[in-house]
Amino acid sequence: MLSLPGGLYMRRNDRQIKAHGAIREIIRRCQVLHLAMVDGDRPYVLPLSYGYVEPDALYMHSASEGRKLDILSAAPEVCFAISTDHALIRDERPCGWGFRYRSVIGEGMVAFVTDEAEKRRGLDAIMRQHGGEGGHYGDASLAATMLLRIDITSLSGKQAGYAAG
């Protein structure tokens, strides 16, 4: 079940993006997320390209083996961060400097996609996210492609340096 927003703790409520549409727009506009996983008792974070399928799924492709897949097989619970509209705010006083941004933090569960039709939809979503179009994926390529889906369970948006949202 998707919780929008407020599923995650936010100390600065004045920076919270409350409009669900604004949170989803950030996800639609960006191209890279940072995926946080837990490897036993150690954190592990990777930047990954993704494709968004509204209202609550993110797709990522992957090599068919490696540390990321080992971790996700054992612990599919993840957290991810997406941010955009970055700008440094300068001030005469060093402590007056700041940073403008819009960001989304989400939590979810990773699923390994094996259904061929869903793989095509997920790959099409990744292509659209990056300005391309979906297309024909050869059977051999499709079979060799590992596709992951994050089923989003919680989202929260935050911004600084922009009008309240």
Topology diagram in text:
Blueprint lengths: L15 E2 L2 H10 L2 E8 L2 E8 L1 E3 L3 E6 L4 H8 L2 E13 L8 E16 L2 H14 L9 H6 L1 E15 L5
Antiparallel strand pairs: 1-8, 2-3, 2-6, 4-5, 5-8, 6-7, 7-8
Describe the structure.
This protein is of the alpha+beta class and 165 residues long. The chain has one domain (13-160): Electron Transport, Fmn-binding Protein, Chain A (Pnp Oxidase, Chain A, Roll), CATH 2.30.110. Helix content is 23%, strand content 43%. Strands 1, 2, 3, 4, 5, 6, 7 and 8 form an 8-stranded antiparallel β-sheet that branches. It starts with 15 loop residues before the first strand and ends in a 5-residue tail after the last strand. The mean pLDDT is 89.
**Mean pLDDT rating:** 89
Quaternary organization: single chain
Enumerate the spans where pLDDT stays under 50 for 5 or more consecutive residues: none
What CATH architecture label applies?
Roll
N-to-C terminal Cα separation, in Å? Answer: 23 Å
Question: What Rg is obtained from the alpha carbons, in whole angstroms?
Answer: 17 Å
CATH topology: Pnp Oxidase, Chain A
Strand content: 35-45%
Question: How helical, in percent, are the residues?
Answer: 10-25%
Structural class, from secondary structure content? alpha+beta
Number of E-state strands:
8
Report the order of strands and helices: EHEEEEHEEHHE
Q: What are the defining features of this structure?
A:
4 helices, about 160 residues, Pnp Oxidase, Chain A, single chain
